[in-house]
């Protein structure tokens, strides 16, 4: 099932039966699915159907679908608007009078058409009322809305695929650092045991504790060395990386397969990886191991930033 991003944009415009239908669909990050519609009054009855279209194809993100319908003035039946001569004359007279009263016009001939057109809303009328209406069952309207939502889903899929590729590259780097740390571990533990043994001997000598009990000393060294061992953390981190790789591998399936939300699952495994690397850092006893842990934490944080945009 493909990984989808939560951000995307699509627009679609079509003409049908004297109307121009424009649909915009966009989405941004959100913890759940939050759908918002901006529809003409004549299309309000379509709201449940449009919300259903969104729920069928998207699971997370703040999704907004905006539908605008205007009269098609290029339609062969004639113009959608015309001028009321009486209102036009009334506007002209009022402008002449106001201009003369306020010294804005030298004569009545000073009024030009462009001055009057600024107030066109006062003399324009529509053939079918002030607000264009369209049959909400018009197939072209439904196709436009469905098409815009489909384009939005495709835009989210394409962006999600790009994020998945980036995450895969980060996983390779992360796995390499884990392998380097695992390779370094035996030598680091041996050096740690030697330093710890020497330090315990020095402390006993400083306090004149007598002869060192080698068996007890060995027990103490093993105890503290075990506390510094990160083998379990390494194994868990490798397991989490394997789970993420398996999740990303699912993106190779058909884009037609209805997607399931992956973002929360990815975030969970990345949080677990951060927890394991934090523990490794607290147990680190060498500069080289610390550098590797810091590099891993930096990689995981970049992955979390990208995963936050996945549905």
**What's the CATH topology label of the largest domain?**
Butyryl-CoA Dehydrogenase, subunit A, domain 3
DSSP helix fraction: 55-70%
Number of strands: 6
Terminal Cα separation, in Å?
Answer: 12 Å
Going across the biggest sheet, name each strand in turn: 1-2-4-3
The top-level CATH class of the largest domain is Mainly Alpha
- The fraction of residues in strands falls at 5-15%
| Class of secondary structure makeup | alpha+beta
How many domains comprise the coordinates? 3
Mean pLDDT: 84
N-to-C SSE string, H for helix and E for strand: EEEHEEHHEHHHHH
Q: Which second-level CATH architecture of the largest domain applies?
A: Up-down Bundle
Number of helices: 8
Pfam families: YicC-like_C, YicC-like_N
Family: Belongs to the YicC/YloC family.
Keywords: Endonuclease, Hydrolase, Nuclease
Domain Endoribonuclease YicC-like C-terminal: 189-311
Describe the structure in brief:
By secondary structure, the chain is of the alpha+beta class. It is 57% helix and 14% strand.
Can you lay out the helices and strands and say which pair or pack?
Blueprint: E1 8-16, E2 19-28, E3 33-38, H1 47-57, E4 61-71, E5 81-83, H2 85-101, H3 113-117, E6 124-126, H4 139-206, H5 214-227, H6 231-249, H7 263-283, H8 287-307
Parallel strand pairs: 3-4
Antiparallel strand pairs: 1-2, 2-4, 5-6
